[in-house]
Amino acid sequence: MIAAQELHTEFQFPQEADTQLSSDTDLEEPDVKNAKLGKGKGGKKGKKAPGEKGKCGAAKGAGLGRVNGHHRENGMENMTLFEVVKMGKSATQSVVDDWIESYKNDRDIALLDLINFFIQCSGCKGAVSAEMFRHMQNSEIIRKMTEEFDEDSGDYPLTMAGPLWKKFKSSFCEFIGVLVRQCQYSIIYDEYMMDTVISLLTGLSDSQVRAFRHTSTLAAMKLMTALVNVALNLSINMDNTQRQYEAERNKVMAKRANDRLELLLQKRKELQENQDEIENMMNAIFKGVFVHRYRDAIAEIRAICIEEIGVWMKMYSDAFLNDSYLKYVGWTMHDKQGEVRLKCLTALQGLYYNRELNTRLELFTSRFKDRIVSMTLDKEYDVAVQAIKLLTLVLHSSDEVLTAEDCESVYHLVYSAHRPVAVAAGEFLYKKLFSHRGPEEEGMPRRGRQSLNGNLIKTTVFFFLESELHEHGAYLVDSLWECASELLKDWESTISLLLDEPMPGEEALTDRQETALIEVMLCAVRQACECHPPVGRGTGKRVLTAKEKKTQLDDRTRITEIFAVALPLLLAKYSVDAEKVTNLLQLPQFFDLEIYTTGRLEKHLESLLRQIREVVEKHTETDVLEACSMTYHALCNEEFTIFNRVDIARSQLLDELVDKFNRLLEDFLQEGEEPDEDDAYQVLSTLKRITAFHNAHDLSKWDLFTSNYKLLNTGLQNGDMPEQIVIHAMQCTHYVILWNLAKVSEGSSNKGDMVTLRKQMRAFCLMCQRYLTSVNTTVKEQAFTILCDALMIFSHQMVSSGREQLEPLIYTPDSSLQAELLNFILDHVFIDQDDDNNSTDGQQDDEASKIEALHKRRNLLAAYCKLIIYNVVEMNTGADIFKQYMRLFNEMLSDLGCNFDRSSSSFCGIKELARRFSLTFGLDQLKTREAIAMLHKDGIEFAFKEPSPQGEGNPPLNLAFLDILSEFSSKLLRQDKKTVHLYLERFMTFQMALQREDCWLPLISYRNSLQAGGDDDTMSVMSGYSSRGSSIRSKKAKPASTGKRKLPEGDCSTDAQVWMNREQNVQTPVMMPSPHLTSTVLRDPKKMRPEESYMGVYAMTSEQQQHQALPAQQHHHQTPMDYNRRGSGLMEDDEEPIVEDVMMSSEDRLEDLNEGMDFDTMDIDLPPSKNRRERSELKPDYFDPSSIMDDSVGIYLSIVMSTVLNIEKTI
Known about the structure:
Layout: H1 30-37, E1 66-67, E2 70-71, H2 81-87, H3 92-105, H4 107-121, H5 130-135, H6 138-147, H7 163-183, H8 193-205, H9 210-249, H10 258-293, H11 299-315, H12 317-320, H13 323-332, H14 338-352, H15 362-374, H16 381-397, H17 404-411, H18 419-433, H19 452-466, H20 473-488, H21 491-499, H22 511-530, H23 546-573, H24 578-584, H25 594-598, H26 602-618, H27 622-635, H28 643-668, H29 677-696, H30 704-718, H31 723-745, H32 751-771, H33 777-793, H34 815-828, H35 847-869, H36 877-896, H37 905-919, H38 929-943, H39 961-965, H40 974-987, H41 990-994, H42 1001-1011, H43 1055-1063, H44 1085-1088, H45 1102-1108, H46 1149-1154, H47 1204-1207
Antiparallel strand pairs: 1-2
Helix pairs in contact: 3-4, 3-7, 4-8, 7-9, 8-9, 8-10, 9-10, 9-11, 11-13, 11-14, 14-16, 16-18, 18-20, 19-20, 19-22, 20-22, 21-23, 22-23, 22-24, 23-26, 24-27, 27-29, 28-29, 29-31, 30-31, 30-32, 31-32, 31-33, 32-33, 33-35, 34-35, 38-40, 38-43
Family: Belongs to the SCC3 family.
Main location: nucleus
GO molecular function, one term: chromatin binding
C-alpha cells in the first residue's frame, strides 16, 4: 500500500458523520468479508512505497474475456481498453467487470492493459510491453513513451474536436469512477494495483508533455474523487460499527454477546486499517499531483484541480472543508485565466449553498470576501455572473457578512449592458431589499396602496432615483424581471399609488418619485408585452415557447382591462406634466384593442380620446405631441371596430389644426405688417402640432406643401423669420414629399401626381440649398440634414428592386450644390469645440452641452459620408475629409509635443479612427498587401522625418504616429512583418532600442506589434495560456512547408513589391532583442502573493518557508523555466500559483500596459442616453456606444483606401 513515511496525513476522519446510510453490512460482498476477516497483521508485511511496483513473473494465462490484454466483445475483433472506452458502445460497468475478472486471473496482464489505457488516452502511439513493465521503472517508461510520442500534432483525445471525443472525456472519467467503486472491497487493498496506478499517474503528471500531464492529472483527480467517496463510506461504516459496539457493550452481562463484541471489534479494526490505506492513497495523490498541478502552466489543468477539490469539500466536508484546503481555492481566485477563476466560484457556490457549512466558511469568507466582491467586475462576463451569484448565496447565509459598500458595488450592475450580469445583480438586489419581511407586514392586504407590494414598489422607485440613471428604467426592470416579475406586474398597486390619496400618517410620493414610478410602470408594461430585453441586451428576438406566448397574451389582456379604465384618470391628473404625460401616452401601444369592444369599455375609449385632445391643445413640446400622434396611430387600426370612432376624432382634430394654421399664416404673412411675438408663437405652436402628426399620419389631402413653401420663401426674402418656424416648416414640407413618394411608389396615384412630386421635390431642394447660406446655424444644420436625406432618397438607387417607374424622380446634385455641402462640412464639423458657440447656445461650460454638440457634428458628418459611399456626390470629396483628420493630428502633435498623454481622449479618438480604417481593408490580406505595405513604409518615414527639437537622445517629433500605425500591423502578412521590422530598424539607432521611457512607448508598441506572431512555438509550455490546442512538447526543427499559399504570379514592378523584395536582403544592424514576457518566470514571493493578510492564517509548509526566505536578489532576474529538472519546472513548491490579478484601477491601467499586461477590467456599457445632463457624474467617453455616431459613419472610411496614396504628397 501507499504508506510513505514523509507524507503526513492531513485527513482527519471524525467519529461521527451525518449521513442517511445507517449500516455497512450491505456494503461488502460476503466472500470479500470472509476473506478480510481472515486477514491479520501479517498481511501488512508486503507493503510497498508509492514509487515501487511489484516485480511479478510473466503472465501465466489471459484473463477471461481478454486475449493478449485486448477486450473481446461478442466475438468481435479484439479491441484495447482505450478503444472500448472511446467507442462508448459497451456499458462502463461491464467493461470494468471484465477487467476485474482479468485482473483476478492474471493481475500483471490486466494491469499492463490499464497502464497502456492511460498512455493511449494521452494520445501516445507507443505501448508499454510486458518486458518494459517488468524491468523498467516508471520514469524510464515515461521517458520511453515521450520519445515515441507523435510529434506532428499537438492534439490529443482530451482536446480533439468532434462528438466522439467530447463524449470520450465523460466516458474516461466514468471508467475511473466505476473502476474504484467496483474494486473498493478487495482489489484496492491488495497493495499492488493502486500503488502502480498512483505511481504511474504521479509520474505522468510531472511530464513536460502537455498531453501526458493533462490526461494524468484528470485521471488522478477523478481517482481521488472516487477514493474520497470510498473514505466517506468507510467513515459511515465505522460510525455505525462503533454505535453497535457501544450498544452491545452497554447491555447487562446476561444479555451481552461476547462473540458479537469480538466480531464488532474485529470489523472496526479492519475498517480502520482500510481507512488508513485509503488515507495514504489520497495523501499520495494530493501531495504528488494536486499540490503541483493546481499551479500548472496550462489553465485547463489548473481548472481540473480546482473543480475536483470543490467536489471533495462538498462530498466529505468533515475531512476536507477546512482552511488547509480552502486556501487553494482562495489563492486560485487570483488566476489570470477566466476559466480557472470560474471553477473557483462554482466550487464555492456548492459549499455556500449548504447553510450547515457556513460556520466552517467564516474565516475563509472574512479573508477572501473582498476578492469575491472585486470579481463582480471581472473582465470575463461568465466569471462576473458567478461571482454575483456567490455573493447572493453569502447573503443568504448571513446579512452581516457583506457591508453596505460591498452591496453597492453589486447594485449598480443591474444597469450592465451584459444581460446575464444584470440579471444576477437583479437577483442580488431583490434578495437584499425585497425578500425580508417583518412581522408587521404579515397582515397586509395583497393588493393596493397599503399592500406589501405597494411598499416594495416604492422601494424600487427609491432605488431607481438613488442610482441617478433615470433614462435607464427599462434596464432596471429587465434585470429584476426574472426574480420579481410578479411584483412589477402588480398594476393595481402601482395605479393605487398614483391615484389614491395617502392614508393619515403616510408620506405621499413627491413629484419626482411619481415621475419615476410612471416610467418604471411603462417599462414593466413594455417588458410584459414584448417579451424581449431592451436595446443593447440581446442579440435578437428569440422565438417564444407556447407557455411564454400564453403568458404574453394573458398579460396583454390584463394590461388592457386595467389601464383602459385607469389611463384617462391618470391623464386627467397629470395632464400639465409633460414628462408624465409622454410616458402615459405610450401605454395604448400595448393594448389589445379588441377588449374595448368585448369588455364594453367604449365609454372609457371616449374618455381617453378627450384626454388626448386636451393634451394636444395644452402642450407644444415635441415629445408630447409625437406621443399623442403615435397613440392615435395605434388606436386607428382598421382591423378593430373602434377604428371609425377614433378616425372621426382624429380627423376633427386635424381639420381644426390645419384650418387654424392656414388662418394664422394668412395673417402672419400679410404685406406691410410687422408680425408680433404672439402671432409668431401661435403659428409655431400650430405648426409643431401639424408636423408631429404628419410624421405618423398622411395629411396629403390638406395640401400643406403650398402653405409651408410660401412660409419658407417669405423667410428667405425678408430674413427675419423665427428660426423655429423655419425649422418646423422644412420638416413638415419634407414629410409632405415623403408621403407623396410613398403613394407614388405604391402605384395608387396617376401620372400627374408624379409630375407634381418631381416639381415639389426639386423646388424644395433648391429652397434648402438657399438656406445653407443663412446666418442662423441651427437653420443651416436643418437644411443640410434634410438635403442629405432627400438626395439619398431620390438618388439613382431608388429605381432598384423593380421600381423603374420612379426614374423621372431621380435627382442628381450639380457641382454648385456639392461644393456647398462640402463647404458646410468643413466649416461646421471640423472646428475646435471651444469655437462652436452657436450650436451650444453659449453654454460652453456645461459638459452635457459639449457632448450634445459633438453628437450633432458627428451626425452631420455621417449624413454627408453616406452621399460619398453611395456615389451621390463625387468620390474625390473623401480626400478632403481625410485631410482634416491628418490636419487635426498634426496640430495635436505640434501643440502637445512628443510627451503628450497617450490615454487622452483626443489621442484615443485618432487611434480609434485608425482601428476602424484598418477594418475596411477586409480579411483577404493578399489583395491589400501592397496598400498596407506602403502605408507602413510611409508611416515609418513620417514618424522619423522630423528630429526632436531638443536634440539627440530625445524621440523624433512625430514618433507618436507609430502608435497609430500599430493598428494596421495585424493586416500585414507574416513575412511582411519581418520586412517592415527590418525597414524600421534602418531608422533606429542602438540607443533607441535600449530606451524604455514613456516617451518611447510608441516605438516599443509598434515593434511589439510587428514581432507578434513571428515565432509560432506551439510546443512551448507557455502557449497553454493563449491557445487551448497547444502542446508543451519541444518540436523538432522542420523544413519550410511547401504547401503554403503562394502569391499570384504577375508583374512585380510596383513600388511596394520592389520595396518588400529589396528589404529582404537588408542587413539588420546589431539590435538588442525585445524582452519576451512569460508568466512562469521566477518572481519575488512578495509579488506572488495576492494577499499578505492571510499569511498568518494559512500557515506555510517548511518548503514554503524555505522558498520565502530566499535572498531578494535571486528573484530580481527573470529566469526562464528549466523543464529538464523537476525542482524548478512547472511550479513545484507548495505555495500559491504564479498568477496575476485581472482587476485594474483606471489610474494604473496605462502603467500596467507598459509592463506588457493586457488584463482589463470589465466596464459597464450604459445604453444610449437622451438626458446627459442628469448624468454629470459620468465622464464622457467619446467612443462609447452612447456617443458614437451611426454605424454607417465608419463605412465612409472605405473610400479612403482608393485615395490615400494620391493625397500623401499633398499632405
